[in-house]
Amino acid sequence: MNKDKQKSFQELNEFVTLNELTNDSSVIHFHAFVSINTATSEIFKQKMTVRVNKNVSPRIAVLELHDHKLDPYQYPEQFYPDYPVFTHVDKLYLKIEDTHNSNPAIGKYTVKIFPLEKV
To answer: How far apart are the first and last CA of the chain?
Structure first.
């Protein structure tokens, strides 16, 4: 695993651990306020269910947004620490930054996930 992937995965793990979102499974569900800013759209602190799966082959993990009314052509919904930059900011929220390659309309995006409680 290269250094960037390892750093993003460590940031995701720190976010999950410090916010006490862990459980006995490799799949973690929790509620969060999610803000997304893309090249053309923005939402601010919308309540969603977030799922983290740490056992996704051949990837190292996946974070997915659920229970929302997002248009998939305007907002990303799945995030892999293999590519985007994951950062646990001030122990308050997880920030994900990248450029959406399969949908150029989304372009460069920033996602902020503020955890609320486990599901």
So the answer is: 31
For residue 110, give both structure tokens.
Answer: 């920033």
Give the mean pLDDT of the chain: 90
Phi and psi based region of residue 16 (left: phi greater than 0; alpha: psi -120 to 50; beta: remaining): alpha
How much is the pLDDT for 25?
A: 79
What are the DSSP calls for 68-92, one per residue?
Answer: ----TTTS--EE-TTSSEEEEETTT
Going 29 to 68 to 78 to 38, the CA torsion angle's sign is negative
Per-residue pLDDT reduced to its tens digit, 85-114 = 999 999 999 999 999 888 888 999 999 999
What are 44's two structure tokens?
Answer: 């601010």
**Structure token digits, residue 24:** 């006995």
Strand partners, 47: 33
Q: In what order do the strands lie in the sheet with 78-79?
A: 78-79, 62-66, 42-53, 27-37, 108-118, 93-99, 85-89
- Global confidence as pTM: 0.92
Residues 6 or more apart whose Cβ sits within 8 Å of residue 34: 43, 45, 46, 47, 48, 50, 65, 68, 111, 112, 113, 114
